[in-house]
Automatic annotation (TrEMBL):
GO biological process: phospholipid biosynthetic process
Name by which UniProt lists this protein: 1-acyl-sn-glycerol-3-phosphate acyltransferase delta
Organism this protein belongs to: Uria aalge (Common mure)
Annotated keywords: Acyltransferase, Endoplasmic reticulum, Lipid biosynthesis, Lipid metabolism, Membrane, Phospholipid biosynthesis, Phospholipid metabolism, Transferase, Transmembrane, Transmembrane helix
Lineage: Eukaryota, Metazoa, Chordata, Craniata, Vertebrata
Gene Ontology molecular function, alphabetical: 1-acylglycerol-3-phosphate O-acyltransferase activity
SUPFAM superfamilies attached to this UniProt entry: Glycerol-3-phosphate (1)-acyltransferase (SSF69593)
Gene: Agpat4
CDD domains: LPLAT_LCLAT1-like (cd07990)
Transmembrane segments: 12-41, 126-144, 325-344, 350-370
Alphabetized Pfam families for the sequence: Acyltransf_C, Acyltransferase
Keyword Lipid biosynthesis tagged: yes
Amino acid sequence: MDIVGFLKSQFICHLLICYIFIVSGLIINFIQLFTLVLWPINKQLFRRINCRLAYCISSQMVMLLEWWSGTNCTLYTDPESYNKYGKENAIVILNHNFEIDFLCGWNFCERFGVLGSSKVLAKKELSYMPVIGWMWYFLEIVFCKRKWDEDRKTVMQKLLNLRDYPENFWFLIHCEGTRFTEQKHQISMQVAEAKGLPKLKYHLLPRTKGFAVTVQCLRNVVSAVYDSTLNFRNNENPTLLGVLNGKKYHADLYVRQVIHILILFCHTEMRIPLEEVPEDEQECSNWLHKLYQEKDAFQEEYYRTGTYPAVPVVPPRRPWTLLNWLFWALLLLYPLFKLLINMINSGSSLTLASFAFVIVIASVGVRWMIAVTEINKGSTYGNNDNKQKQK
């Protein structure tokens, strides 16, 4: 291991990165709080400012993937679709199999300039999470309790509020509702059998009602649906801890239309005009089930041959994520080191003990944040003991 790789794997570096992320995030959350005064005066200005503030937070996560771990990202698409990315509102359907699939989705958004304005359909618990959850509140993210009878009215209202959004945005949605695990897959396929639906090998049954309402509310606002499926080379299982350790992964975005090529890490991408998605809820549900059957067939092909038809395009890696992180690092590390030096010079055992205690608390906090992304510590939504009914 070279010296750079060794440093990337050291916990002290991880701690400093997390310190910059958390402190800068809380500062930005505080600034966002003051932007609330703009809402009744100029709602669109409020939104534009918060898009930029949100970018300052989420781009730090993308920086870890692009610059710290050096992950390669290649898009496989046709030129006509490529020219529209970032220039239109879109619904992006993502599968939910890996711990960093959200980060790969953000990376896709960043390459085409919509990271700050990207939206998600997220579980309500995340809204209470400092930094990212609070940031999402000001971005008008759609939160749900995963109880459709309670969620329907709230979700519809939040989606309708986006109809006059001043920035191009991508609405990222995990239609499966939860991360793939063998236990959840087994339960999901039991539901498929009971409903007479074709079984899926590599996905959970999509929960169609949320998608149908999203399409209904954003019709004539969103231009297309991008269907995306995430895979990794050699059955790699990427983790946020791996990214933090500087481990390099290889990412591709694959479009179904073009010629045969070897895939290192696949993220299938198909641009579907929204007019082709049925408006009727039941027809939309059938359309989504068919889409997931097609996604499953592509996964089968990938696992069998390791190939997909595609032509690679490499979207340029923009410098803004790195520059943003360097700005916050310079701003926040100097007072930290100055404080540390003063504490050491003081010679006070109580002061040093207090500092050590803060380090321990910070370490626990870092581990907790990483655990949020870990599959084995994820939600029980979709498990048998939850007795959740597939929608």
